[in-house]
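Writing this down once: the sequence line spells out the residues, with the fold written below as integer tokens. I am pasting one below:
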Amino acid sequence: SDAMLRYFRDSERDGWLWSCNLNGETLDFNKDLYGHAFVIFGLAHAAEVTGREDLKQAAFDTWEIVRSRFRDARGGFAGKFTRTFAPAPHTPSQNPIMHLFEALLMLNTLDDSGLVRQDGEKVADFILNRLRRKSDGILPELFDTDWRELSAENGGRIDIGHAFEWSYLLSRAVECGWPQDYLKPAERFLE
């Protein structure tokens, strides 16, 4: 966690840089939702295990960056930005949002306010009520910038592995006291 804080945190412009080499020199200055989700996830786990307040604070600070910089006007999250948080080309995907939900489940264990849970439920609601197909309950992988499913001709697909991950994460959320109605879509994802 110390190497991550030292080499990947963008102390000049906020957020986390995508990659660096073994010497700690930045290779890719982009800011990616997928990476930020795993920063939250990793820091929250490390804070829980070590009891280090600096790691806990960094996890919450990262969530605040995601909330304020990555959220889009349609209730989803932009997947990629430049170092200065200017939009970067990408194909919207449910995958980084899934890992953000996973990270919020972990961060919630460190939160006494209930705000992380509220935010996590909004993430789940976006996936279940906006992105999941109403006709068959299947969750597509890729979308256009208005969060409409991409057709197969345009690169759209279904990722079975991600359906299994969502099933687990929604079930885990219920075990943590989140809404029971997550179990029905979790079961459908397994089907």
